[in-house]
Write a structure and sequence with these properties.
Blueprint (H helix, E strand, L loop, with lengths): L1 H27 L5 H25 L9 H25 L3 H12 L3 H12 L6 H24 L9 H10 L1 H14 L6 H12 L1 H12 L2 H6 L1 H25 L4 H11 L7 H8 L3 H28 L5
Helix pairs in contact: 1-10, 1-15, 2-8, 2-9, 2-10, 2-14, 3-4, 3-6, 4-6, 4-12, 4-15, 5-6, 5-13, 6-7, 6-8, 6-13, 6-14, 12-13, 12-15, 14-15
Length: 317
C-alpha cells in the first residue's frame, strides 16, 4: 500500500529530524554555544563514530550467506560513482573548499544508520545477511573516498602529495575504527565484557549526538549562501545517484532484500558523519551541514518514491 510505504519512510527519517531540531533549539536558547558544538563534533569524529563503525563490522556474522554478485555490484558502482564525481565536481564548483564536501555529500550515503533498519522494516521476516554484510563493503569505501576528497580539496594543503593523502587516510579516526573492526571480526577476537560493554555504549551515542550537534551548528543564513551547491548536492544524492544505479541493479536481476539493501546504499541521505568529518578536516562545514539536513528532509519523499516504484514494477516483493 502506498500509504504504508509513505509511513515507513516517515518513520525512518522523522526521528533524525527531531534530534537535529532539538540541537537547533538548544543553540537558539543559548544552552549550547558554537564553540561547544565544535568541541562535541571533535569528540564525535575522533571517539564515538570510530567506535560505532568498529562494532558495526564486529557484529557482522562471519557465517552469513555471501551474495558476491550484489556486494561486488555495490563495491564497483560506489567506486565508479566517486570516480565520476572526482572528475566532474571540480569542473562545476569553483570554490576549492566546497569541492571535496560536494563529492562526499553526493557519493556517501547514510548506510551505517539507514541500511539494516531500512531493510528490516521492509522485510521483517527476511534473511538480512546481505544488508549486514553490505556494512563491511560500502562503509569503508565511503570513509576512504571521502577522506581522500576532503584532503585533495582542503585549503590546509595546497598541493597534497600522495604520501600526505595516504597518511591522512590511514590515520583518519573513522578509518582506524573500521580497521580495528575488521581485525576483531576477521580474527574473531572477543573483547572482555569490561571493555566491550562501555565501548559499545559510547559508540551507541554517536548517531544521536552527531544529529544533535549538527542541529546546534546549523545556520540557515549560511546555508542560503550555499544554495546552488546545496541544490546540486541534494539532487545528486537523492535523485541522480539512485536513478543511475537502482534501475541498473533491477535490470541485472537483483531483487527483494538485496535490492532493498541497495536502496539504502544509493537513495538514503548523506551520512551524518560527513559533517563532523568536514569540520575537522577544514572543508566547507556550512555546505556539509546543509547537505545532511536537506537530504534527510527530502528523503522522506524520495525513499517513499523509490520503494513505491520498485514495488509497482515487481522488483520488491
Amino acid at each position: 500500500m502506498p500509504v504504508d510505504d509513505l509511513l515507513f519512510s516517515l518513520n525512518t527519517v522523522f526521528p533524525l529530524l527531531v534530534m537535529m531540531a532539538v540541537g537547533f533549539a538548544a543553540r537558539r536558547a543559548g544552552i549550547v554555544s558554537e564553540e561547544t558544538a565544535r568541541q562535541v563534533n571533535a569528540c564525535i569524529f575522533k571517539i564515538f563514530l570510530p567506535l560505532l563503525l568498529c562494532f558495526n563490522i564486529v557484529d557482522t556474522e562471519l557465517g552469513a550467506a555471501f551474495d558476491g554478485r550484489v556486494l561486488s555490484y555495490a563495491l564497483v558502482t560506489t567506486l565508479l560513482c566517486f570516480g565520476v564525481l572526482f572528475f566532474a565536481v571540480p569542473r562545476l564548483c569553483r570554490d576549492r573548499a566546497s569541492c571535496g564536501v560536494l563529492i562526499q555529500g553526493i557519493g556517501r550515503s547514510n548506510y551505517a544508520i539507514f541500511g539494516i533498519p531500512l531493510v528490516s522494516m521492509m522485510y521483517p521476516d527476511g534473511d538480512l545477511s546481505v544488508a549486514v554484510l553490505m556494512v563491511a563493503v560500502v562503509v569503508p569505501v565511503f570513509n576512504v573516498m571521502s577522506t581522500v576528497a576532503l584532503m585533495v580539496f582542503s585549503d590546509k594543503l595546497e598541493k597534497p602529495s600522495p604520501w600526505a593523502i595516504a597518511r591522512g587516510v590511514v590515520l583518519n579516526p573513522l578509518i582506524l575504527g573500521t580497521l580495528a573492526g575488521f581485525a576483531l571480526w576477521w580474527f574473531r577476537i572477543p573483547l572482555p565484557a569490561l571493555l566491550d560493554t562501555p565501548l559499545r555504549k559510547l559508540g551507541s551515542i554517536a548517531t544521536p549526538l552527531a544529529l544533535f550537534s549538527l542541529g546546534a551548528s546549523l545556520d540557515f543564513g549560511k546555508a542560503r549562501a550555499n544554495l546552488k551547491l546545496l541544490v546540486a548536492g541534494v539532487s545528486g544524492r537523492l535523485v541522480w545517484v539512485p536513478l543511475i544505479f537502482l534501475p541498473l541493479a533491477a535490470m541485472l536481476g537483483i531483487r527483494d532484500v538485496a535490492l532493498a539493501s541497495l536502496i539504502a546504499v544509493y537513495a538514503s541521505p548523506t551520512s551524518v558523519s560527513s559533517f563532523p568529518m568536514t569540520q575537522q578536516m577544514g572543508g566547507n562545514s556550512d555546505l556539509a551541514g546543509g547537505q545532511v539536513v536537506f537530504t534527510t528532509v527530502f528523503s522522506i519523499i524520495t525513499v517513499f518514491l523509490w520503494v513505491f516504484v520498485l514495488k509497482a514494477t515487481g522488483c520488491l516483493a
